[in-house]
C-alpha cells in the first residue's frame, strides 16, 4: 500500500471532480489517501496527521499549493506530485486532465524524485534571539510595505559586505525560485538543480547594482540601514512577518532539500517554453 497525502486549494472549481477521480482510482492503484483537514471535511477517508509516514504528497492546485505542501512535509523526505488546476503551474508536473495517467505512472514508480535546494530563513531580534524561522522552496523577500519610499538594505555573505541596496526590497531565491519573483525583478534563469543562492534587488535605484549568484554554502544576512521603522519578510509569497529596526534576516541553504516528482520526458526548457513563452522568434512565429 502506498500512503499518499493529499492537499488542495478549495478555491478551484475543478477540485471536487478531481477528488472524485482520485477516489475512484485509488483502490486499483493500491493508494491509501490521507487528506489534509480542509479536504478531509469534503472527501472523507483518512486524515493527514503525520507527514513523516507518507510515501508521497499530492498537491491539487497551482504553484502556491505545492509550495504550501512543501512546508507541510518539511523536514521529511517526502516527494511531491503536483497537479495543476490553475493557469501557470510552473512547478507542477501535469494538468488535471492528466491526473489518471500521472497516478498510474507514479504507482508503477515511473518517475524521478528531483531534489531541489531549499532555504532556511531566520529573523533575529535586537537581543540576538531567533524570533521566527521558515523553510522556503522559492524565495525569501525583504521588502517595504505600502509606502512609496526607497529602503536601504545592507547585504553580506559569510560576513563580507556585498552591497548596500537602495531599492524596494531584495529577493533571495533558490534556483527553483529563480523563475518566480526574482525573474520578474530582472534576475537570471538558473537551472533548478544547480544549487546556489540568487540575490536580486527589486527596483534598485542605481545602474551599478545587479543580481549576484552566490554558492549554496553562503550564509546571507540582511539589515535595514535607514528608512521606515517596519519592513516585511515574505516567504514563498505566502507567510512571513514584520521586520523591525535593528533586526537581522539570515538565510542559508536548508539542511534538507525538497523532492519534486518529474516524469521522464519532462525537460526544464520544455516547461519554460510552454509555461513562460521562452524560446525566441522561432517558437513565436511558428517557423523552423
Structural class designation: alpha+beta
| Oligomerization status of the protein chains | single chain
| CATH fold label of the largest domain | Rossmann fold
Q: What are the secondary-structure elements, in order, as H or E?
A: EHEHEEHEEHEEEEEEEHEEEEEEEHH
Q: What do the pLDDT scores average to?
A: 90
Strand order of the largest sheet: 3-2-1-4-5-6
- Total number of domains: 2
- Measured as a percent range, the helix fraction is 10-25%
Radius of gyration: 20 Å
Span between termini: 48 Å
Q: What overall geometry do the principal axes of the alpha carbons give?
A: elongated
Described by strand count, sense and barrel closure, the largest sheet is:
6 strands, parallel
- Give the tally of β-strands: 20
Percent of residues in β-strands:
35-45%
Question: Any overview of this molecule?
Answer:
The protein has 288 residues and is an alpha+beta fold. It has two domains: 2-116 and 258-285, 3-Layer(aba) Sandwich (Rossmann fold), CATH 3.40.50.10330; 119-253, Tumour Suppressor Smad4 (Sandwich), CATH 2.60.200. Helices cover 19% and strands 39% of the residues. The chain is built from seven helices and 20 strands. The protein has helices at 15-25, 37-43, 63-73, 99-107, 181-184, 268-276, 281-285, and strands spanning 2-8, 31-35, 46-47, 56-61, 80-84, 94-95, 112-116, 119-124, 130-136, 139-143, 151-157, 160-167, 169-173, 196-202, 212-215, 220-226, 230-235, 239-244, 248-253, 258-262. Helix 1 (15-25) links the parallel strand 1 and strand 2.
Amino acid at each position: 500500500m502506498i500512503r499518499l497525502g493529499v492537499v488542495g486549494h478549495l478555491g478551484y472549481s475543478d477540485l471536487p471532480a478531481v477528488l472524485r477521480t482520485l477516489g475512484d482510482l485509488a483502490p486499483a492503484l493500491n493508494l491509501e489517501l490521507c487528506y489534509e483537514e480542509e479536504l478531509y471535511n469534503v472527501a472523507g477517508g483518512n486524515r493527514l496527521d503525520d507527514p513523516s509516514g507518507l510515501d508521497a504528497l499530492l498537491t491539487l492546485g497551482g504553484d502556491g499549493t505545492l509550495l504550501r505542501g512543501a512546508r507541510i512535509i518539511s523536514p521529511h523526505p517526502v516527494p511531491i506530485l503536483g497537479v495543476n488546476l490553475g493557469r501557470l503551474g510552473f512547478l507542477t508536473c501535469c494538468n488535471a486532465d492528466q491526473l489518471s495517467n500521472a497516478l498510474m505512472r507514479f504507482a508503477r514508480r515511473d518517475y524521478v524524485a528531483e531534489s531541489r535546494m531549499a532555504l532556511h530563513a531566520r529573523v533575529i531580534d535586537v537581543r540576538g534571539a531567533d524570533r521566527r524561522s521558515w523553510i522556503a522552496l522559492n524565495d525569501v523577500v525583504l521588502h517595504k510595505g505600502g509606502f512609496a519610499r526607497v529602503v536601504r538594505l545592507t547585504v553580506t555573505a559569510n560576513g563580507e559586505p556585498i552591497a548596500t541596496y537602495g531599492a524596494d526590497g531584495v529577493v533571495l531565491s533558490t534556483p527553483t525560485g529563480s523563475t518566480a519573483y526574482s525573474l520578474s525583478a530582472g534576475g537570471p534563469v538558473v537551472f533548478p538543480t544547480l544549487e546556489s543562492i540568487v540575490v536580486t534587488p527589486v527596483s534598485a535605484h542605481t545602474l551599478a547594482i545587479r543580481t549576484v549568484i552566490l554558492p549554496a554554502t553562503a550564509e546571507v544576512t540582511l539589515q535595514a540601514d535607514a528608512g521606515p521603522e517596519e519592513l516585511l519578510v515574505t516567504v514563498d509569497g505566502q507567510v512571513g512577518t514584520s521586520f523591525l529596526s535593528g533586526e537581522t534576516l539570515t538565510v542559508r541553504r536548508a539542511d534538507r532539500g525538497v523532492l519534486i516528482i518529474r516524469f521522464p520526458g519532462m525537460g526544464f526548457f520544455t516547461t519554460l517554453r510552454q509555461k513562460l513563452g521562452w524560446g525566441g522568434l522561432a517558437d513565436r512565429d511558428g517557423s523552423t
